[in-house]
Amino acid sequence: MSAHALLLAAVMCVCAASVQAQPVTERSKQKQEAEKERADLQQRLADLKRDINKTETAKDNAADALAESEQAISKANRSLRDLSQEQSQTESRLAQLMKQLDQLTAQVNAQQAQLSKLLRDQYVAGNEDRIKLLLSGDNPNRINRELQYMGYVSQAQARLIDTLRANLQAIRANKADVQNAKFELEEIAQEETEQKQVLEKEKSKRSSLLSQLSTKLSSQRKEAGKLQQDDQRLSGLVDKLAQIIEQQKKAEAAAREKRRQEQLAKAKAERERRLAEQRAKAAANSHPNAGGKTPSMPNPADAIDDDEPPKTASLGRNDQIPEAQEENFGKPFAGLRGQLRLPVRGDLSAKFGSSRGDGPASKGLFIRAPEGAEVRAVAGGRVVFADWLRGFGNLIIVDHGNQYMTIYGNNQAVLKRAGDVVKAGDVIASAGNSGGNEQSGLYFEMRHQGRAFDPLTWVTTR
Question: What is the pTM of this model?
Fold first, then answer.
């Protein structure tokens, strides 16, 4: 009785002990690692912007005064959206952990009650140990039955205690995970508060600047030379991005070829090793007809498919936007003609080829939409630019492969970063009037091999 009682007391103490979880979270570390991975790409894009801007002659562009504030607003909005998604995921994980904790606690309570019952039954039965039973001189058949019974009871107790210990350990681990999730939520709440303060400050700053610059912005918007420079600036950016994408493709192709050659060499070495083993076995075999089949060489490197997926009067209105989906991602973009939807709901105030005073014809669409309206990717692809550009404000460009790109300008905020993979219907930005635009909405272009074409010839009216 005493040994069992001590064991039960020890188990109960372990269960009752309070485990103090350490405030350890990997969230900050993971964020730092993610930012480090983006650093090289961001540096290349920054160099690209400097290369484009160094040819600019207009140093007093009124929209430039808004750049810093509009970039800060975009960054704060993106951070708030990311934090909101992260908070939702963390809360869901916390709810699952709490549910698991309740289940584990109920199991432990049931197992403790079962173990107590076993010990109590054994005590009530007389708690005869094996030595006393063997020396009792009782009927051998009864002794054998009692020994077997005691063995079964001992095995059941051992299994129950092992399971109880495992569950107690699981509870400790669960509590640590719960505490970690709570610390993460506290971090997120703190960051959200800070980002909201930044957002309000930058919005106030931008509003003040707009009031001061309104007359100058209005006059500069009508300058034909400025419009021409804006078009050239965007075209230069698209051409440079296409070069970077092509260089990246070549680098990836070279890396794949290197891996393929390494796999071939490894397979060859493996085949030669097997042949050598077979020769050695054949030489050691005294039967002249003995031998073995040469193992067939496995295909070490399957071919890798490198194909990429693929205030004015209203001129119409768009009420259909891309729906979140995966089926378009991975398909050649050229095959989606006639199936796309415009990226934001709103009135069309400028169409492709429409006149812009004495300046060049419009190379895209302008869709009037309320500030903050969701802008969605028209098809799957990869974000290759997400930054502020003179003339277009907060701009995001998505590469769809095979030299097709879609361009989304004048956003209040870009919600994706360069390098992000997006699917059709993903929210990538929010509409606005950044870059000194008079109206709130979205400027949208589609380009192939650097040349703009009419988006309305690619969208469905259904």
Answer: 0.62
